[in-house]
Design goal:
- The chain contains 2 helices and no strands.
- It is an all-alpha fold and 136 residues long.
- The longest helix has 125 residues, at 11-135.
Length: 136
């Protein structure tokens, strides 16, 4: 393109234009290099900020794990306490059932003894009645 425009010009003018063109290209490349450098620094800054944020998230996650671990420990303790209380209550109910069972057995013995006395008294009365009828 530059060569087509400069065919009718002397060689020195062509060389000057070529040098000017090279200077402009170098300046453009230099500016692009600076832009790339700025972009690279910006990317590094963003990556650094992301690393910091990930570290914060990791710390927060660790804290949450610790808190949930403590919470589960508290729940375990509470369940153990509830289990102990339930065991105590069941033991009390078992003792009460045993007392009621013993009371029922005692009532049964008392009724058996009462029946024996009743049978003895009835037989004695019948025997006396028979003895009185024989005497008459």
């Amino acid at each position: 393109m530059l060569a087509e425009q400069s065919l009718g010009r002397p060689l020195i003018v062509y060389e000057i234009e070529l040098r000017e063109r090279m200077v402009r290209v170098e300046e453009a490349l230099k500016n692009q290099g600076e832009e790339f450098k700025a972009q690279r620094e910006l990317i590094q800054h963003v990556l650094h900020q992301m690393d910091k944020r990930f570290e914060q998230v990791d710390k927060r996650f660790g804290q949450m794990q610790e808190q949930s671990g403590k919470h589960f420990d508290q729940m375990d303790k509470r369940f153990e306490q509830m289990q102990e209380q339930s065991d105590k209550r069941f033991d009390q109910v078992d003792k009460r059932f045993e007392q009621v069972h013993q009371e029922i057995l005692q009532i049964h013995r008392d009724m058996r003894q009462l029946n024996m006395w009743s049978i003895g008294i009835i037989l004695s009365i019948v025997g006396l009645g028979i003895a009185i009828f024989r005497l008459i």
